Amino acid sequence: MKPFLSQGKIIFCSLFLTAISFQSVQGQSVERHRVIILTDIEADPDDTQSLVRLLLYSNQIDIKGLVATTSCWLQSKVNPESIKRVIKAYGKVQPNLLKHENGFLEEGELLDFVKSGLPKYGMTGVGDSMDSEGSDWIIKVLEEDDERPLWISVWGGVNTLAQSLHKIKNTKSKKEAARLISKLRVYTISDQDDSGTWIRNSFPDLFYIVSPGDYYGTATWTGINSYIKGIDNTTISNSWIAQNIQQDHGSLGAEYPDVAWGVEGDTPAFLSLIPNGLNEPEHPEWGAWGGRYALYKPDFSKAKKGGSIVTLEPETRAIWTNTDDNYTPYVTKEYGRTMKRDTISFKSNKTTLWRWRDDFQNDFAARMDWCTMSFEEANHPPVPGLTHHEKLTVKSGEAISLDAFKSTDPDGDNLSYLWFHYPEESSYKKVVNLGAENVHIVHFKAPEVEKKETIHIILKLSDKGTPSLSRYKRVIITVVPK
Question: Per the confidence metrics, is the pTM higher than 0.85?
Fold first, then answer.
């Protein structure tokens, strides 16, 4: 360790740390994930809906660009002014948001990030002389001295990114191109132009999450707005949206449009970037607010069509795409132990997303309250605190105790605990019985294993404020044979 830093170096280090992290109300420093949004805003009201939500997390997600693009639904026009309109509404409530957490970006900072792609559809906008301020901006941000991955959250067509990749391939050395592309992470809401397939085929090493083609009915992201028979769907109802988002929540809520096709179909493209203790964007195979995905070369030839007009072409490489969860919800009990497993189970790729829906909808509603309420009037998320490490190694049959005794709540709310095994994330697939899973400490025995296995145990910590808010801890237990 160097014993001395000059004043200039101290200032630089301070600015750098501020750029990559935010301080929550609890004073914890959390790294922010960089993201550039590509949006065909005005093709459907859901882009505006998703933008309203995104801006409420502008202190937790490092927004580096908001690019207006085309799509199969908006082929010859881009609408950057619609992005600016929502940002200006955000600017009016930003001072009040700062009463709840620090780090919310200024209106002017966000307006500087608004760019435009070409008003051309798909591959007609990709090639020599097809650069745009949007495609050049992606390259500029990629070239910054920042080793964090750059997420491209695609809500419409992806040809602005395709043009960036075309230019990188043709103007950079192979080594530099590979370095830049290795920093990219793409999540696209299905294929909304024909450049997505070109990207995946031309850049086989590019990290890419997508439910390909026009098979919206089988896409994981539709779990955000699908009506699921057998559960309470209130938090995606029009009346819930009107009461909790649109009305009496200031200028930003007033910009949230009514549902036309499906509520917030683009939001899953950034949900997993929110630092909540569960989300791990570099691990799409781990369940998170944005769903869970597996890496393989899919064949959707027998899937039911219905969605965009983009022709589905065979995939030539592995991509991160649909995978199933087998999920039995917990339901509340009026007497005795407060939680129990429901009598019905669900299995689908959409389940990987909607199983968290009430949690992220309540989180959205609470942040909308922050637009107008004082700190004392509003609710804030609890803070899980473990008495042990988040990664443990034990032997077969060994006793295990997991304890969240250090958990707190900034509002002094009473806390509820729920521990559960997530088999799909684990190499050990048999369900691990945790006993009374709704207390701060759980005791159980490691299973007997013949080879090294991993077990993912999730703590969901919820407060009893209004709305109830949840945060998580993921404990990864490695079990080794005796």
Answer: yes
